[in-house]
């Protein structure tokens, strides 16, 4: 299990201000998603890609103050990739971010489908398993507790429903 990923820690430190009181909950969510993603099959070559997709996938909620956060999250990831000389990863990471709330399979090459499944496992707190062992899922949740993240998602969802009743979950995709 990965417990300290330099890319994740650096990006979270850089965005600590906007994350505010949600920083620990988001950090734990990122580590849960990354570790669940890797539990579908270790892929040494994809660890950094998964970590980058993980740290940016929901970050737009806080940096842009919106629950319609996929475009700002992609923008942040693209800027990071450009600044770190990893432009060639942009399509794969952008696909993972844009697909992570798809209800159906991502249908994209690379990490997108594993990433989508890992995020769904986390957001549903293990109700959806996509075939992963409950033992593995419980180990990940024990290592990286919610720390208020799931409660915060519920609060944000209700706020979005109140202010945008015709578009309460703009990040969901078919």
Short synopsis of the structure:
The protein is 60% helix and 0% strand. The protein has helices at 6-14, 16-19, 23-39, 47-56, 60-63, 70-83, 90-99, 112-123, 134-143, 149-163.
Give an overview of the whole structure.
With 174 residues, the protein is mostly helical. It has one domain (6-163): Hypothetical protein af1432 (Orthogonal Bundle), CATH 1.10.3210. The chain is built from 10 helices and no strands. The chain has helices at residues 6-14, 16-19, 23-39, 47-56, 60-63, 70-83, 90-99, 112-123, 134-143, 149-163. Helix 3 (23-39) packs antiparallel against helix 4 (47-56), helix 4 packs across helix 7 (90-99) and helix 6 (70-83) packs antiparallel against helix 7 (90-99). It is globular and about 45 Å long. The protein starts with 5 loop residues before the first helix and ends in an 11-residue tail after the last helix.
SSE blueprint:
Elements: H1 6-14, H2 16-19, H3 23-39, H4 47-56, H5 60-63, H6 70-83, H7 90-99, H8 112-123, H9 134-143, H10 149-163
Helix pairs in contact: 1-4, 3-4, 3-8, 3-9, 4-7, 6-7, 7-8
